[in-house]
Specification:
The chain is mostly helical. It has 2 helices and no strands. Helices cover 52% and strands 0% of the residues.
Length: 33
């Protein structure tokens, strides 16, 4: 998968198509600052 050099973009695409499921470290940090 080619998404450029932006990890947030790659993560968003992966989540939207089901490659990444569940909570990521970033998700947990947003919920518990």
């Amino acid at each position: 998968m080619v998404t450029g050099d932006q990890p947030p973009t790659a993560g968003a695409i992966a989540k939207s198509i089901g490659i990444i499921t569940g909570k990521t470290v970033d998700d947990l940090l947003e919920e518990n600052p």
